């Protein structure tokens, strides 16, 4: 019974990882860009949401906002931040010399943004964890002896619909076709009349939205936010993305759930201290034995755009 | 010398050695985002030998270097099969696995860390840093350096010209790992204590940024990058509060003069990174810059030849 409960917990935890992992895999598959600001955007949504709910709008424009509004504000800030990141990491960084580390330029400047955003939040709010005044987390649902917290179930459902929507968008909508064309070959896409500069920000908007939602769900579920909350989630999401396969949406979903389950099983059998070693060990083994992951494509990571 | 300067020189020397370790891998076009893992290996090897086996300083430091180097050599074969984003993730994952294993090992102290009995003063790291810098400068001027450069610039052409690309990469990666291990061993002895929390992902990121911002084309780059970003926060320690006072004074805000915390220096490092990647992605110190700044005694020798044409 305890094991079943742990599996249920793993699934719930996995749903947060899935959202962030999908954000990672979206930028990698379309732009071939490992965006290290993603964990920070996640954190930003949570922290801004907390700050709006606790202090209200800046400069004393309003009192504390109700929590759903505050979280919506957090998501909006994450989207804006993501667009700013696009402006400076991706848009103007076409390489000039063609050497073998050139693919790293956007990656390195996203590392720069990681430092900027995280430390700005730290300066503004301190590095302590804060209690998020969300709905009571006590709403539990008992199902055949397994206890599920209601906000977690809701967020799992939200995540499932989010991923389904994204898959539909990538497959059938006009924007999705454009994005896939850019992923295939940016030069050819440009010749065929796709304005790369107009379309690429959409990827970053989606990234910001996904991270923002994940951050909001995390704040509601765990009732606690801190400037460090992105680091752990971000690294687990990267692990999930790699295990599932870079560039595949369903791979990221499967990987996120697998990492959530591995984490809970490790805690169940071996204790919390071994989680880091098992999760990253799974990643390392996947990279060494099957670099394309469970569902990934071979072509990712070979340097395209 | 005061304790402040001693501490500064020690950490500067360690950072310079560490940066050279990462530089060797980056110079062959391999981004190594697992620096902290190799440094932790060196630090814990030295700490364990000094603490549990009472080995002398020479043995522990050499052991730190060798352990990191050998593990770097062993892991480089599978890990250098990966490319681009995968390689970055692979090295990053390696560092996390090392940290995770050390955290769970009772012999190495787990989360509480290990005390190190033998203490070294600032002179050992300083001498080591100078030796390492000279070694890397010499290496980059030999045929090996030329081959490293060719592999970095164009792998396919280097291969066609008969360069054993794989061997060059493995050698550079393993040697870099050994240098990172050396910096770790020096760290362990200089601070008399190691704990795994120090060797975290941020450390790997910082040291990679030192190398890339300094410039990975010449051996001057990591030296400059590590020195600049180690000394910058120290320089800002006095300037930033004064600046804040001035800004708040002109805005007329009273009483908000609690000193700015040290997060600002990371914000500055981040802004510098973003700006550098936009305006000078090849790093601050490039090959052309070094050639331009060469002493003038080269110029007259070239002038007659041009005149003769």
DSSP strand count of chain A = 4
DSSP helix fraction of chain A: over 70%
Overall tally of domains of chain A: 1
**Biggest interchain interface, per-side counts:** A-B, 55 and 53 residues
Mean model confidence by pLDDT of chain A: 79
Order of strands, main sheet of chain B, comes to 1-2
CATH class of chain A: Mainly Alpha
Question: What is the general shape of chain B?
Answer: globular
Gap between N and C termini of chain A, in Å?
50 Å
Report the major sheet of chain B: 2 strands, antiparallel
- In terms of DSSP E residues, the strand content of chain A is under 5%
Tally of individual helices of chain A: 11
Oligomer: heterodimer
User: Outline of chain A, from the CA principal axes?
Assistant: globular
Major β-sheet profile of chain A? 2 strands, antiparallel
* Strand element count of chain B: 2
Averaged pLDDT of chain B: 81
How would you portray this structure in words?
The complex is a heterodimer of chains A (305) and B (309). Chain A contains eleven helices and four strands. By secondary structure, chain A is mainly alpha-helical. Chain A has a single domain (2-127, 145-289), classed as ABC transporter involved in vitamin B12 uptake, BtuC. In chain A, strand 2 and strand 3 (146-149) form a beta hairpin. In chain A, helix 1 packs antiparallel against helix 8, helix 1 (2-31) packs antiparallel against helix 10 and helix 2 (38-54) runs parallel beside helix 4. The longest helix of chain A is centred in the N-terminal third of the chain and has 30 residues, at 2-31. Chain B is mostly helical and 309 residues long. Chain B has a domain at 3-199. In chain B, helix 1 (3-27) packs across helix 9 (201-214), helix 2 (35-52) packs parallel to helix 4 and helix 5 (123-141) packs across helix 6. Chain B is globular, with a radius of gyration of 21 Å. Chain B starts with a helix and ends with a helix.
